[in-house]
């Protein structure tokens, strides 16, 4: 179910070879979301996102950035209520963390930037991923190429908001048999993945062993970073992975698949998990 504020109507002029016409169309909503810590009172991040599954987004972001490791460390999340008029502000979420978690926030401030792609490539980032890596190399589960071929159509069928607006990304979680387990959409590719992982975190389903994540568009360093921390062994994308994403996948034992379209894909790492014929 799409959030009522996830898309807005706008008048658009369509120009064609034989003239032009005006009609109403739908646009994907893009609004800021402020993640605000209750104690100590401070802003952790501001990200541009599509409204909907906001709590999933916040949980996934905090988990992916190493602020929380377990469900009990996230004490509570709620939308901010303006004390002056009692109105709920759905662009601000107040987060309460456990005391032990809050104590380490000063050392984590380097993670928080005001955009929707918060990964930073450097020695410190790579060391953090190594410490938090949850991808099992000893898992011998495999996926058939025929199963992978089917994921693109299933991802598109789950993109209800994309069908309305044509203007946002999606991330979906499948099992090794190609069954769609969960999907999320957002104007930002990284936000869609944060929402997906956040929903799994809140449901107590991490690490995602035996899971396949597919993202629309390309697969970047940040996409791989988030999947590695969540324990995802197979990461697929509609377009190409970046060079750094492939390097990361090879180092951490992730199967990286790109250009997954129809009955064809490119396999960049982790071929041992794929049955090609």
Automatic annotation (TrEMBL):
One of its GO terms (molecular function) is sulfurtransferase activity. One of its GO terms (cellular component) is cytoplasm. The keyword Ligase does not apply. Its main location: cytoplasm. Mo-bis(molybdopterin guanine dinucleotide) binds at residues 259-264. It comes from the Bacteria. GO terms for biological process: Mo-molybdopterin cofactor biosynthetic process. SUPFAM superfamilies: Cytidine deaminase-like. Keywords: Cytoplasm, Molybdenum cofactor biosynthesis. The keyword Disulfide bond does not apply. Gene3D superfamilies: 3.10.20.10, Cytidine Deaminase, domain 2. InterPro entries: Cytidine_deaminase-like, FdhD. The active site is at 118 (cysteine persulfide intermediate). HAMAP family: FdhD. NCBIfam families: fdhD_narQ, PRK00724.1-2. Required for formate dehydrogenase (FDH) activity. Acts as a sulfur carrier protein that transfers sulfur from IscS to the molybdenum cofactor prior to its insertion into FDH. Belongs to the FdhD family. This is Sulfur carrier protein FdhD. It comes from Pannus brasiliensis CCIBt3594. The gene is fdhD.
